[in-house]
Amino acid sequence: MSRVTDSGSTASTAAASSATTRGGFSNVDSDQFMSLLLAELQNQDPLEPMKNSDMVQQMSQIRNISATDQLTSTLSTLRESQELVTASGLIGQKVEGLADDASQVNGVVDRITVETDSENDTRNVKVHVGNQTMQIRNIRTIL
Question: Which of 29, 50, 56, 98 has the fewest C-beta atoms under 10 angstroms from its C-beta?
């Protein structure tokens, strides 16, 4: 990469520090990466500007980050949909597993529910056997 003047060093260092605090550069999203790139461009040494090949490489990295984010989102949605389909297929089936209260459950699934946690942006598919509930991943046997 090109050299950065002292004034730009502070901005780039702050952005890089923010990124590494959250788990390294592998966790940098496209907005953070773009901020780093813009800080570098604004504060580069005019006598030794960034080479075109470096710019193209960084733009490619931005595209890769964006594609990875989209793939992760798509796979998460697919997993959640698959859990719901699987759980709905269990209605009327006899199952064994571990309930939410850590007790053993053995009986017929009579309904399913989906619990969402907006704080963590997660959702849990649960099956109901009588008055007990269990997460679908805690089912051990389908009879």
Answer: 56
Please report, for the domain that includes residue 131, its CATH number. 2.30.30
Residue 28 buriedness (CB in 10 A; 0-12 / 13-18 / 19+):
buried
For 77-114, the DSSP string reads HHHHHHHHHHHHHTTT-EEEEE-TTS-EEEEE--EEEE
**How big is the chain, counted in residues?**
143
Residues 62 and 112 in one domain: no
pLDDT digits (tens, 9 = 90+) for 58-114: 778 878 888 898 899 899 889 888 999 999 999 999 999 999 999 999 999 999 999
Q: Is the dihedral of CA 46, 47, 51, 57 positive or negative?
A: negative
Structurally, how many domains does the chain consist of?
2
Among 9-13, 32-36, 106-110, 136-140, the range scoring the smallest mean pLDDT is: 9-13
Q: Which domain holds residue 126?
A: 90-142
Task: For residue 8, count CB atoms less than 10 angstroms from its CB and return exposed for 0-12, middle for 13-18, buried for 19 or more.
Answer: middle
